[in-house]
Design a protein that fits this description.
The protein is mostly helical. It has a domain of 77 residues: F1F0 ATP synthase subunit C (F1FO ATP Synthase, Up-down Bundle), CATH 1.20.20.10. Helices cover 82% and strands 0% of the residues.
Length: 115
């Protein structure tokens, strides 16, 4: 492992060790938690994981699509226009799925649908 990787990891661990203390000291006294705070907490966690999976798998799908299109253009340069059109349509559809997950995640983050 490189020195840079080790140093970055050490700094992240040190920052993570002191971050909870900073947050505790910055907050004021809170009133009683709402009755559905667990539901809100888990909806935010679920939305975060859904967004992470959608973005990761969408990126893998887009990479595979671009690689296949480049290979197809290399095999048949005469069909470049048709391949490019199909590639752009596929990329738009893949990205739209990720954007839908982002919108649902933002709704779960900022609006409480469980009231």
């Amino acid at each position: 492992m490189s020195k840079r990787f080790v140093l970055t990891g050490a700094l992240v661990l040190v920052a993570g060790a002191f971050a909870p203390d900073l947050v505790v000291y910055a907050q004021e006294q809170q009133a009683a938690a709402p009755a559905n705070s667990e539901v809100i907490r888990w909806s935010i966690i679920t939305a975060g994981f859904a967004l992470a999976f959608a973005a990761g798998l969408g990126a893998l799908g887009q990479g595979k699509a671009v690689a296949s299109a480049a290979e197809a253009i290399a095999r048949n340069p005469g069909a470049t226009g048709d391949i490019r059109g199909a590639l752009l349509l596929g990329l738009v559809l893949i990205e739209s799925l990720v954007i839908y997950v982002l919108l649902i995640s933002l709704l779960l983050f900022f609006f409480n649908p469980f009231r």
